[in-house]
UniProtKB/TrEMBL annotation:
Spans annotated as Disordered: 1-37
Lineage: Eukaryota, Fungi, Dikarya, Basidiomycota, Agaricomycotina
Species name: Calocera cornea HHB12733
Compositional bias (Low complexity): 1-10
Record-given protein name: Exonuclease domain-containing protein
Source taxon at top rank: Eukaryota
Length: 278
């Protein structure tokens, strides 16, 4: 009998997100299948991945209790590009990008620290759309790329967000929606694929117990996102990939490099499944 993070709901029946009343289609269960050599493998549960790494206003030394506002919303959409004869997905490739700066409204002036960290300037955010407007542009991107139904707003394929740690959606997005006075967008879904956590699992760096301890530490000091720990450059090194491309803490560059990590994990045969509830 196979297991899956979403296996409590019977296959083929839609999972209902009771918080938002949205019907979110379950990906197929990752049942073991056999490849051409008779070796068992798990089918990939998702067809599409939305890699996201937001940037936000910040102050030097500011932690997660600071009311950061999102100022960059960059996403790389990835889909499977290769499947072998036994149905094993082997290559994941970027197919589209969405990038928008966002105008902060609660504290519109960027600190010098924020600009030097992220490279984002006042002249980039001043003319940018507000956060609710960016969300609407992004929803249309999801419709245009066949992820959401334009009429019902329901997902049309099994997709998941993929982020470096849980913070982008669980902390930054939640905080921003509260500051903007809007509900969480229904298309986010109830869980996320934390790429950093998946990498640890796939490389066997962490026992499940050590992983839980690490999570508890990160959650208690709220510094996970800012701690050097398993930074994106470090993840690339661990996977023996080329070094970080672009500028660290530039949202679109961070996102593209996380996408490279995810593609490598896929190439190595890791099951790309959601591993963190929101
Ligand atoms: P990152 O994805 O690591 O670039 O970080 C996302 C956001 O977290 C940044 O845009 C900042 O708002 C915040 N952040 C990251 N590093 C720091 C830091 N050292 N001090 C304060 N805020 C930070
Ligand atoms: Mg970043």
């Amino acid at each position: 009998m196979s297991t899956s993070t979403l296996s409590l709901t019977p296959p083929d029946s839609p999972a209902v997100d009771h918080h938002r009343g949205l019907t979110f289609p379950l990906p197929p269960l990752a049942d073991p299948s056999k490849d051409s050599e008779g070796k068992l493998f798990r089918r990939q549960p998702f067809d599409a991945f939305l890699v996201l790494d937001v940037e936000a206003t910040c102050e030097e030394g500011g932690g997660f209790d600071w009311p950061n506002e999102i100022i960059e919303w960059p996403v790389v959409l990835m889909k499977w590009s290769e499947m072998d004869s036994s149905g094993r997905m082997s290559a994941l490739a970027p197919v589209a990008e969405f990038r928008s700066f966002v105008r902060p409204t609660w504290a519109p002036q960027l600190s010098p620290f924020c600009t030097s960290l992220t490279g984002i300037t006042q002249s980039q955010v001043d003319p940018a759309p507000s956060f609710p407007e960016v969300l609407e542009h992004f929803r249309l991107f999801l419709v245009d790329h066949g992820l959401l139904d334009s009429g019902t707003g329901e997902p049309r394929v099994a997709y998941t967000f993929a982020t470096d740690g849980p913070w982008d959606l669980r902390d930054f997005l939640v905080k921003q929606c509260w500051l903007s006075g809007i509900p969480l967008p229904p298309w986010v879904g109830p869980a996320v694929l934390d790429v950093r956590k998946l990498l640890r699992r796939c490389l066997g760096c962490d026992s499940a117990k050590r992983e839980r301890e690490r999570e508890a530490e990160r959650d208690s000091d709220g510094a996970g996102k800012h701690s050097p720990g398993l930074s994106i450059p470090c993840q690339l090194r661990k996977l023996r990939l080329d070094p970080f491309e672009g500028r660290q803490h530039c949202g679109i560059d961070d996102t593209r490099n996380i996408a490279r990590v995810l593609a490598e994990l896929a190439r190595r045969g890791c099951t790309l499944e959601q591993n963190t509830a929101l």
